[in-house]
Backbone:
């Protein structure tokens, strides 16, 4: 597993830095954003009335609403499936493409290789979710802002399940394809397709972004347990299928 962590070191550091940049590009600038909105109030109100966003803009003065919508419901939330895909796409395909999988399997069993790769990507993905979710808690503490910490903990649940689901989908593509390009294109393409289909009302459930962005947490203050359990189970079956294919794949 040490090898897997070393292989993902660069990607993990880059994702961590991106997370910090994203957070500190919005958290300290609430007043600046509100100032810009106030300065362009006349223009903004025209579109806000049209799309029913008047109440949302006024609520941005509230620190909790600002962080829930701009961090969890936008910047960080949007990146969660992408982070999972970036971490998982080369796990198996790169070894096959570079011709190193044969040497790896001579030294280790297929079970060890499979579990070490999958668990290492999940551990890093989960760590990024936890760090990204507690950043508002830490920042609020040091800046003296009143923050609803329990909401951030609920977002952690949605983030962990989202990483689990998209990590396992990407692992599946990484195993069935023998180069590194197809797994990332397939995973990103699937994410785009089901997100687009989710805009069709009967297919709304396909849009994992609604879940990752914590719509139910923001609107009702609750974790969406039914969707969480469904994604967890589907992700589990995809991981089992990946395991079966890897165990029987000719290398």
Residues:
């Amino acid at each position: 597993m040490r090898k897997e962590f070393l292989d993902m070191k660069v990607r993990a550091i880059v994702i961590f830095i991106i997370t910090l940049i994203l957070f500190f590009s919005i958290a300290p600038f609430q007043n600046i954003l509100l100032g810009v909105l106030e300065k362009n109030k006349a223009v903004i109100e025209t579109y806000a009335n049209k799309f029913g966003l008047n109440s949302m803009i006024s609520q941005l003065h509230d620190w909790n609403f600002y962080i829930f919508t701009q961090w969890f419901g936008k910047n960080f939330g949007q990146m969660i499936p992408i982070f999972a895909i970036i971490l998982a796409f080369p796990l198996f395909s790169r070894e096959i493409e570079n011709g190193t999988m044969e040497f790896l399997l001579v030294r280790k069993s297929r079970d060890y290789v499979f579990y070490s790769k999958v668990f290492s990507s999940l551990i890093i993905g989960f760590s990024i979710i936890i760090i990204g979710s507690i950043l508002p808690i830490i920042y609020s503490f040091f800046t003296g802002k009143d923050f609803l910490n329990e909401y951030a903990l609920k977002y952690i649940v949605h983030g962990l399940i989202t990483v689990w689901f998209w990590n396992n989908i990407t692992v599946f593509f990484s195993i069935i394809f023998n180069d590194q390009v197809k797994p990332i294109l397939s995973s990103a393409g699937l994410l785009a397709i089901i997100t687009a289909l989710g805009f069709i009302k009967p297919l709304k459930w396909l849009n994992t972004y609604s879940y990752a962005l914590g719509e139910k947490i923001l609107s009702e203050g609750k974790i969406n347990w039914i969707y969480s359990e469904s994604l967890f189970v589907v992700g589990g079956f995809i991981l089992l299928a990946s395991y079966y294919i890897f165990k029987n794949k000719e290398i």
Notes: The radius of gyration is 20 Å. Residues 110-143 form the longest helix (34 residues).
